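Table S2 (continued). Query chain:
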Amino acid sequence: MDGSGSHSSSRAGANRSSRFELSIGLKFRSPCVKEFGKIHGVPFDPSQIEARLALELIASADMPKIAWDALEAGLDGPGIRRLAVLERPTYFEVAEVLPAAMREMGLATIPVERAAVRIAREIAGEILSRDDDPRGRLRELEVLWSRSGYPHEMQELGTLHDDVWISNQPETTIRTWVKSRVKEFIRAHKDD
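Corresponding output:
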């Protein structure tokens, strides 16, 4: 906040720094998971946006960021522009313009089961690309499975947290086992 009591100058600088990035901090209402599926430094990704919209994982306040990224990716239209100019939008303001903006961005409405698989594939890929402990992301997968209505396609990953918790294996064995289950999931759902 500057001396005049305005937040606008610091917010404008933050907006410029997010150019060419989709930076959606998805807030979850669960006490177990404070943030879910952050996307940073990723170009406009319609597939992930569709999935997060289907599961209602994008807060109204984050919707203008998507419109900015769409504009920067070369997409344009009255709906996208209306969404982009909203400042601290309410659910109702977003709901009024979102259908038009989605059409202009080429976004489809997808079933929650398919959305969950898309997001799970992204998380699974992150698990495999990092050398840190994969168990840290398992609770996210469980909450995703629950939030999407326990679809059969997600059961393998949705129960991993519990499977690990009740296992009586050494840490290295668990890490290897989790990564192999995650690889299996990606292989089985590469076309979803």
